[in-house]
Design goal:
The chain is built from 14 helices and 19 strands. By secondary structure, it is α/β, with parallel strands linked by helices. The protein has two domains: 130 residues, Chitobiase/beta-hexosaminidase domain 2-like (Chitobiase, domain 2, 2-Layer Sandwich); 339 residues, Glycosidases (TIM Barrel, Alpha-Beta Barrel), CATH 3.20.20.80. The strands form four sheets. The chain has an eight-stranded parallel beta barrel with strand order 10-11-14-15-16-17-18-19, surrounded by six helices. The protein is globular and about 75 Å long. Bound molecules: ligand TNX. The site of ligand TNX has 10 residues, from loops.
Length: 533
């Protein structure tokens, strides 16, 4: 069964018609702006799997070719990321108004091909051949922002691990990867004007697992790889709380002028930048420098400045610091994103985006804080923690790939796949409607997650549920949310994840094609600490 996740707006599969067959003589025929680059990215995957030459060419397409067309009017409504796909005995034709839309369509194509398309060793063709079922797909996303977040501060993940994650997220048509680059336990991005942020601040992580950070070139490599997959990197510098790593590196950022020791625990809410006038010069210089240097290496439009859980900052100081931080951030030309607490500041730059992380049933003052962003001309990203947090435990405490039970449970207990799939964004925050919602994001916090197999176990398959909520039409707009149908499509996606070697959690109730075998070993050896040298 061909299963596509996220479910397309419309899909007609003609199982009785002759499928398309990718062969040694197939070519990728590209036309329109950006089409050849998208075709090359797809060819990279398909060449590695098939061993075929698959040249990217111009001109007319034949029945064994795949046509990649960028041209205005290719999709109804001119949706930016929309695409139309036709496949069958006459060839494959993928068309979109933009290169971005074309790329999203290639990920549908990837899911329609046999799972062996994920192999990198020029595998022998699968028994059925490299076929794409005869199909017509017309598709476009519901929300403009569809993201995941990786916390590289609590535990650090190497560049290549992040690139692998980007590729898997692209398969689900996500278009943003938010990197939580700083926290109490580590500062993970090189800042040339404040070298001790990484010199001292990057040497630790939770539980003494060693540190690590991205040089600017490392970060550029992530940005570039993601950009080829039309994924925007959203860097987060978490301020004014969650700053112990920075405070431990620079005494002048502390009110008492004393640098605290590095921190390797998992408490939150004990650190803060200093709002007092004696530290104003140092703090404002710090804010200007870090936002400028991060913005300089970030081509995307967003800069996330945190704002969450500043429990060691007085309310007045918090509002003052948020005003100064967001001013410094906005001076770089970026649009600022903040966790919903930042809504306490009434002097946000118009258009600032609030990220909601309360529950599906909002708690405390989350509603008024979130609405404050919309009141100030901004929009909202929804990450309700009880359904969209990928670091929440699975029910029944399954052991992760390395034997440990992973995750936290503060967000109303464990989160099942059904819960991750069974929620509707509109209506969570009363007064926040469809057009106020920029999109949806699923964060992975890494207090309990130290290795790639563990990361994959928590992310997959729940992120697929979030991707579908973010992309596929709402029930009100004619979409469907059948758990049974989703589970069947997930099983198909699972064959791709198996081939990629992803250690996803084989959640009960999904008809996975291949049951977990004893002796399955993760691709990565347990825990290689990323130690600074
Ligand atoms: C809350 S959600 C946090 C993080 C923790 C996470 C653990 C948010 C904005 N802050 O500092 O890592 O819970 O689930």
């Amino acid at each position: 069964m061909a299963g596509i996740i996220p479910a397309p707006v419309s899909l007609e599969l003609r199982d009785d018609a002759t499928p398309f067959r990718l062969t040694e003589s197939s070519r990728l025929v590209a036309s329109g702006e950006g089409a050849a680059a998208v075709a090359e990215t797809f060819a990279g995957l398909a060449r590695a799997a098939t061993g075929f030459e698959l040249p990217v060419v111009g001109g007319a397409a034949g029945a064994s070719d795949l046509e990649f067309v960028v041209g205005i009017g290719s999709v109804p409504g001119r949706a930016i990321e929309g695409y139309a796909l036709e496949s069958g005995a006459d060839g494959v034709r993928l068309a979109a108004d933009t290169a971005e839309g074309l790329f999203r369509g290639t990920q549908t194509l990837r899911q329609l091909l046999p799972a062996e398309i994920e192999r990198a060793d020029a595998a022998r063709a699968p028994a059925s051949g490299w076929t794409v079922p005869a199909a017509s797909v017309a598709d476009a996303p519901r929300f403009a922002y569809r993201g995941a977040m990786l916390d590289v501060a609590r535990h650090f993940f190497a560049v290549d691990d992040v690139l692998d994650l980007v590729d898997r997220l692209a398969l689900l048509k996500l278009n943003a990867l938010h990197l939580h680059l700083t926290d109490d336990q580590g500062w993970r991005i090189e800042i040339e004007s404040w070298p001790e942020l990484t010199g001292i601040g990057a040497s630790t992580s939770v539980d003494g697992h060693g540190g690590g950070f991205y040089t600017k070139d490392d970060y550029r490599r992530i940005v570039e790889y993601a950009a080829a997959r039309f994924i925007t990197i959203v860097p987060e510098i978490d301020l004014p709380g969650h700053t112990n790593a920075a405070l431990s590196a620079y005494p002048e950022l502390n009110c008492d002028g004393v640098a605290p020791p590095p921190y390797e625990g998992t408490e939150v809410g004990f650190s803060s930048l200093c709002a007092s006038p004696e530290r104003e010069e140092a703090t404002d210089r710090f804010l200007a420098d870090i936002t400028r240097e991060v913005a300089e290496i970030t081509p995307g439009p967003w800069l996330h400045l945190g704002g969450d859980e500043s429990l060691a900052t007085s309310e007045a100081d918090f509002r003052d610091l948020v005003r100064r931080m967001t001013r410094a951030g906005a001076a770089t030309g970026k649009t600022i994103i903040g966790w919903h607490e930042m809504g306490a500041c009434r002097e946000l730059r118009a258009g600032t985006i609030g990220q909601y992380w309360s529950f599906v049933e909002p708690a405390g003052d989350a509603v008024s804080l979130t609405k404050s962003f919309v009141g100030q001309g901004g929009r909202v990203i929804l990450s309700p923690a009880d359904v969209a947090y990928l670091d929440m435990k699975y029910p029944d405490d399954p052991e992760g790939p390395l034997g440990a039970v992973l995750g936290l449970d503060w967000a109303k207990g464990p989160t099942s796949l059904e819960e991750a799939y069974g929620w509707e964004p509109v209506g969570i925050v009363p007064g926040i409607g469809e057009s106020d919602i920029l999109g949806i994001e699923a964060p992975l916090w890494t207090e309990t997650i130290a290795t790639v197999p563990e990361l994959e176990f928590m992310v997959f398959p729940r992120v697929a549920a979030i991707a579908e909520i973010a992309w596929s039409p709402s029930v009100a707009a004619g979409g469907s949310r059948s758990e049974v149908d989703f589970a069947a499509r997930l099983a198909a996606l699972g064959t791709h994840l198996d081939t990629l070697g992803v250690s996803y959690h084989r959640v009960a109730g999904v008809p996975w094609a291949r049951p977990l075998r004893t002796g399955d070993v993760p691709r990565f050896l347990p825990m290689t600490p990323h130690i600074l040298t």
